[in-house]
Design goal:
Chain lengths: 171, 74
C-alpha cells in the first residue's frame, strides 16, 4: 500500500474514528494525538493492510484496541472520575436538576448492563456509528449488535419509565 | 409528526431496527407529549456535548481488546 492508497483508504477514516476515540479518551488534544498514533500504527502495518478483506473494520478495531490499552494504562483515572461526572452541567439552569437526575439514573443503569451492551449503546447512541462499524469494532455480527443494543435500550427505557411514572399518576 | 408514526419509530428504536436517520427524526420530534423520548433526547444531547468520557473512564478498564484478525468478520 503506497502513500496515496493509505491516505485514501485509511487516513480518510480519521474523522469517523474521532467520536469513539474522543469519548473513550477524553479531551480533544489527547484525541488528536491518539488518532495520530493509531494512524502511525496502521502505517507500520500497511503491508498487512494491503490485502486485508475489511480495511475499515481493521482500522476501527485497531483504534478501539488502542483506546483500551490507554485506558488500562491510566486505570488510576477511574478512581478520580466520579467528582468530574458530578460537576457536569447542562448550561441551561432550569434543566440542571433534571440532567443531574438523569445522569445518576443513566450511570446506575449502565453499571447494571453487561459490558457488551454498554459498549454497543455508547457506540450507537452516543457516537452515532452505523451497525456495520459497531460490529467490526467489537468483532461481532451486525445482528448481534442489534440484539445487544435493543436489550440496552429496553432496559434503560424501563428504568426511565419506572423512575418517571409518577408524572402520569401511575403510583 | 403523527403519534402513530412516533410510536412505530419508537418500537423500531427499542428493537434496534431503526436507521440513524430515523433516530434523528425521532429525537427531533420529542416534546412534552413524549416525556421519555424527550429525556432520551436530553440525555443524548448532554452526553454528546461532554463526550461523556467519564462513562468510558468508569467502565473502560472492563473492556477487552479484540483480536485484529476478527476485523474480517463482516
Amino acid at each position: 500500500m503506497n502513500k496515496n492508497d493509505f491516505k485514501l483508504k485509511v487516513f480518510s477514516l480519521s474523522e469517523r474514528l474521532y467520536p469513539m476515540v474522543a469519548r473513550m479518551l477524553g479531551n480533544a488534544t489527547s484525541t488528536e494525538d491518539a488518532i495520530q498514533d493509531i494512524m502511525m500504527r496502521l502505517w507500520d502495518k500497511r503491508k498487512h493492510l494491503e490485502h486485508h478483506p475489511n480495511i475499515t473494520g481493521f482500522v476501527f478495531l485497531t483504534a478501539r484496541n488502542y483506546c483500551i490499552d490507554v485506558l488500562r494504562k491510566n486505570k488510576s483515572i477511574v478512581d478520580d472520575a466520579t467528582p468530574y461526572l458530578k460537576v457536569l452541567k447542562s448550561g441551561e439552569d432550569h434543566k440542571d436538576v433534571e440532567w443531574e437526575e438523569l445522569n445518576t439514573i443513566i450511570q446506575n443503569v449502565l453499571k447494571a448492563l453487561p459490558e457488551q451492551q454498554q459498549e454497543v449503546f455508547m457506540m450507537r447512541d452516543i457516537d452515532g456509528y452505523a451497525f456495520t462499524e459497531i460490529a467490526v469494532a467489537m468483532a461481532i455480527t451486525v445482528e448481534h449488535a442489534r440484539v445487544l443494543l435493543s436489550r440496552a435500550r429496553k432496559q434503560i427505557g424501563i428504568v426511565l419509565e419506572n423512575t418517571y411514572s409518577y408524572e402520569r399518576g401511575d403510583y | 409528526m403523527k403519534e402513530e408514526t412516533i410510536k412505530t419509530l419508537m418500537e423500531k428504536y427499542e428493537a434496534g431496527n431503526s436507521t440513524l436517520e430515523e433516530e434523528q427524526i425521532l429525537f427531533e420530534t420529542a416534546d412534552a407529549s413524549t416525556p421519555n423520548l424527550r429525556r432520551w433526547g436530553l440525555l443524548k444531547k448532554h452526553i454528546k456535548k461532554h463526550h461523556l468520557k467519564v462513562l468510558t473512564i468508569h467502565f473502560g478498564h472492563l473492556l477487552k481488546a479484540k483480536p485484529l484478525e476478527s476485523a474480517g468478520l463482516v
